[in-house]
Amino acid sequence: MVKIAVAGGSGQVAREVIDTLLATNKHYIAILSRSEASLKDAPSGVRWRVVNYDDQGDLVEALRGTHTLLSFLQLLSDPEGRSQKNLIDAAIAAGVKRFAPSEYGSAGTINMPWWAGKENTREYLRKVNRNKKVLEYILFQPGLFLDYLAFPYKTAKHVDPLQSVFDYYNGRAIVVDGHEDAIMTLTTVGDVAAIVARAVDYEGEWPEIGGIRGNRVTFSQVIQIGEKIRGRPFTVDNAKKEDLESGTLNTSWALEKRHPAVSEEQYAGFGKTVSIGILLSSIKGACDVSDELNQLFPDYSFNKIEDFLTRVWKGKP
């Protein structure tokens, strides 16, 4: 049994991981949070610690005795990654052995400005380990949550439904014209949480890149599976690459559902930005994640896209 600290532990993905870790009944878990307002939401069996991410001494004290630190800090409000850099410095000072920064998405971040903070953190981790490894770390990268293809239906306990460029409910999709073979990696939230829990228990050294490949499929395959499950042809909007590069989205629809981490002020035009970013980044290989953790845990059986979505959409209008 080791002590695990979870930074940003009140977030949706964090809570999925915490629940899975608690179910193993193996570890002491401490949640680090900026606010006491979330104390009522603390799962039983964990300790809640309010911290100031700008106070190095406070962070070091909170991390004393921690073996593994998992970060789920929100990056939109801190694109420079200052809070996460402070967390890394404090982890090193406190003698934390392992660290996982706030990732849980694509391998690349090109054309995705809302994830700029990830690149800053990746570079900082390389910097602190440049001369010798002072902090073991892993980048958990599962691609896009497969659960989002169930929108508007909720398929995870904590993670809310979100739209994607594949709209199974309305039978429509957006692709980049001529790039229908672009690769998407789609992994369920449950599978991600299960693999993270296994990685926490893993006694060997973590790989720096922690690819989690639930399903590796092309855009056209995702659409074909949708048409089969929904029993009707999809309407496909073909966006021109040159239009997308210029910031233009000439399609009949775009993402409208606001992520809870995005404020009302931030959301103006955000759906369009995310639509363009997902489309452009996917044709540049950002969503084709590696499979290091599949190889590390070869006995784990991932949810297959067609089976999962068939169960979700059975009997749905």
UniProtKB/TrEMBL annotation:
Ranges of residues in domain NmrA-like: 3-246
Keywords: NADP, Oxidoreductase
Pfam hit, one: NmrA
Top-rank lineage group of the source organism: Eukaryota
GO molecular function (one): oxidoreductase activity
Transferase as UniProt keyword: no
Family the UniProt entry places it in: Belongs to the NmrA-type oxidoreductase family. Isoflavone reductase subfamily.
Protein name as catalogued: NAD(P)-binding protein
